[in-house]
Write a structure and sequence with these properties.
Structural class: alpha+beta
Number of strands: 12
Radius of gyration: 26 Å
CATH class of the largest domain: Alpha Beta
CATH architecture of the largest domain: 2-Layer Sandwich
Strand order of the largest sheet: 4-6-9-8-7
CATH topology of the largest domain: Beta Polymerase, domain 2
Bound molecules: uridine 5'-triphosphate, manganese (II) ion
Largest sheet: 5 strands, mixed
Length: about 475
């Protein structure tokens, strides 16, 4: 936490005296020394590093005086109060900012006051994902989520004082935007060939970061290049190309409601009493999404088995699906943790689908792939009732796991990650979309509602609309 050449000099000096100096934070680090940097800044930097290191309370945050004295002595001098950086307590921040560093302990509404800043940080997060730098991607997401939870707009760097999860890099980006209106790094990234190609290629259904990267290295930049390069596509990717335009058009809340009606009818027809719940972003109150997520269950444990193939069959008979692939995720608690009898085998089925959603005449807002199937051409008013390809995720869960699945599929992705981090680091528990395991008591904790899971975790309940971290 000092200039590069001074740091290099001091590093050489201390190594010559037998000290071990690291450039990045790792488990091996015991002392962090800074110069001309406030305790708050060092703390914020440390907060942004938590993915690599959980036990950050055991590391000493020290002023340069401890270092120079240790150099003089030729060994680490014992730490005295005057050596320590003054770090504000997390819950009693100085500038009136009291924010928890865990996103699952904050309320994050959909609408907030820092859209320009969060869009910038999210773009950098996305770009880090495209470079497979997960640590950096999560750090930017955390920084962005902190700004989303603020009560008002950030107008100066002063407003960031005491806030967690804002690393050096994020602060630099925020500073640039506050001063110049834009961040040169964000602008450059957005304009870069790599970012644009990765964005377009990962936008194809069935294409992940790894595949897109391989293609990028081969010179592919746009979906249209795939044919030129003679690329072989799997079934999902072929469907992704066929419906590319529709699938890149956000799904509206109205379309999600239409789909809820259709899926609800299908489920009710093949298994009376079965219920569906809209999860994902729409449950958090979003007005648009990249897909629609449904959770399906039956109040009687076991009745949900074999439900998904029947639902898919019902939908296919009616020509409502353009693509479907069932993933049969057998989930066995006994296999994951040795604490429970193997006879209790739980099932967790998932189906990725692309629906052919018939749009009512009025709601149809000029789908980009018309004209299509002849049935879409009826009427002859020139205003054809078209259809739209929409991604729908169907997940079936036994009722005993329903609360965990509901919590796990509601998101946001960062909120989920933070819940699991809280469970693991603070409670020695392991949370998944199936169950909650308490490692201390070596037992599973049952829950029939999301509220009970929050209670098991010692967390205040956060309603879905405030999980938009
Ligand atoms: P989505 O990717 O659908 O996100 O996953 P979303 O919040 O609904 O956003 P949009 O509007 O579609 O873009 C929904 C939730 O499901 C979980 C994610 O963690 C997220 O919280 N999920 C998703 C899984 O648990 N596993 C998966 O394989 C995918
Ligand atoms: Mn979704």
């Amino acid at each position: 936490m000092m200039g590069a050449s001074r740091r290099a000099f001091l590093s050489r000096l201390s190594r010559s005296k037998g000290f071990r100096v690291e450039d990045t934070l790792s488990q091996a680090v015991t002392h962090i020394v800074s110069e001309n940097t406030s305790g708050e800044e060092v703390q914020a930097w440390l907060e942004s590093q938590v993915t690599e290191r959980g036990d950050r309370d055991t590391v000493h945050l020290l002023d340069i005086t401890w270092f120079t004295e240790s150099m003089r002595e030729g060994c680490p001098v014992s730490i005295e109060d005057r050596h320590r950086l003054r770090v504000p307590e997390p819950s009693t921040q100085s500038a009136g900012n009291t924010m928890d560093s865990y996103a699952c302990r904050r309320r994050t509404p959909l609408q907030h006051h820092n859209m320009v800043l969060t869009d910038a940080l999210q773009l950098l997060s996305e770009n880090a994902e495209f470079c497979e730098n997960e640590g950096r991607s999560v750090a930017f997401k955390r920084a962005s989520a902190v700004l989303k939870a603020l009560q008002g707009p950030v107008c100066s760097l002063e407003d960031l004082r005491g806030l967690p999860c804002l690393g050096e890099h994020s602060r630099r980006v925020i500073k640039e935007i506050l001063e110049d209106g834009v961040s040169s790094e964000v602008e450059c990234t957005q304009q870069s060939e790599k970012y644009q190609a990765m964005k377009a290629l990962t936008g194809i259904f069935g294409v992940g970061v790894k595949t897109a990267q391989l293609w990028f290295w081969e010179g592919i930049r746009r979906p249209a290049d795939l044919q030129t390069f003679g690329k072989k596509l799997n079934r999902a990717q072929a469907a992704g190309m066929l419906y590319y335009e529709d699938l890149s058009t956000p799904v509206t809340r109205a379309e999600a409601d239409l789909l809820q009606g259709i899926v609800g009818e299908a489920v009710g027809a093949v298994l009376p009493g079965a219920r569906i719940t809209l999860t994902g972003g729409f449950r958090r109150g979003k007005q648009t999404g990249h897909d629609v997520d449904f959770l399906i269950t039956h109040p009687e444990e076991g009745r949900e088995e074999e439900l998904l193939p029947k639902v898919i069959g019902w939908l296919e008979t009616r020509d409502l699906l353009l693509y479907q692939k069932i993933h049969k995720n057998s989930y066995l608690e006994a296999k994951e943790w040795p604490a429970r009898s193997a006879s209790n085998m739980d099932r967790f089925e998932r189906c990725f689908t692309i629906f052919k959603l018939m749009l009512p005449r009025v709601a149809h807002q000029g789908s980009t792939q018309a004209p299509r199937a002849p049935e879409a051409q009826e009427g002859g008013t020139g205003e054809s009732p078209g259809w739209k390809a929409v991604r729908v995720d169907l997940v079936v869960t036994p009722i005993s796991q329903y609360a965990f699945a509901l919590l796990g599929w509601t998101g946001s992705q960062l909120f989920e990650r933070e819940l699991r981090r809280w469970a693991g680091q603070e409670k020695s528990m392991s949370l998944s979309s199936h169950a909650l395991f308490d490692s201390t008591r070596r037992q599973y904790l049952r829950a029939a509602s999301e509220e009970e899971i929050f209670a098991h975790l010692g967390l205040e309940f956060i309603p879905p609309a405030e999980r938009n971290a």
